[in-house]
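Table S2 (continued). Query chain:
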Amino acid sequence: SEGTAGRWCIRTLVVWATRNHVSPPLTVGHRAIRSSRLLSHDDRNRLLRTCLTEVPDTLAYRVAAVLLLLYAQPLVRIVRLTTNQVFPSPTATFIRFGMSSADRTFVPEPFAALLRQHMTTRPNTRTVNTTGNPWLFPGRRAGRHVNADVVARRLRQIGINPLGARNRSLRELVRQVPAPIVAAQLGYSPNVALKHAAMAAEPD
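Corresponding output:
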């Protein structure tokens, strides 16, 4: 009950152990986060413009950065995207983040063009046993996607804080679209979307 903030990390293990009947029912409360990292509105727009129109990094990392900045996708989910979740077309490109096949999100230009280009030039697809590699961001190891920590380090090198960017992006989205729709389209739980909607109503 006392100690550093790291003690809260045990909660995930306790929940798993209880759910799988490995231990008797135990309860560990959620960590109360007093403040959250938040990118400014202007910085988000500047970084989006940079990733879309300039060359701050390779195409793959630019696409990953825009998925974070535009759609508030966590990096752990971005690296697990498959090519089957992208529906490219010269007239209208869509991407699916949620579980339902009906929840497809429109991809605007010029990002749609970058995404289509990335689909045809994905890195790390010529190694052994990568025929039909399903990952949108293949890793160097055959059949594996790129590691989220690797992407996080690259994004920080070009000035993007992943958590701050995700929080700002989600907050901007729920200001423009009802929270339940954002949740369904982007693969978030309704509670998370409603929480960010409440915070979006407060001054930054």
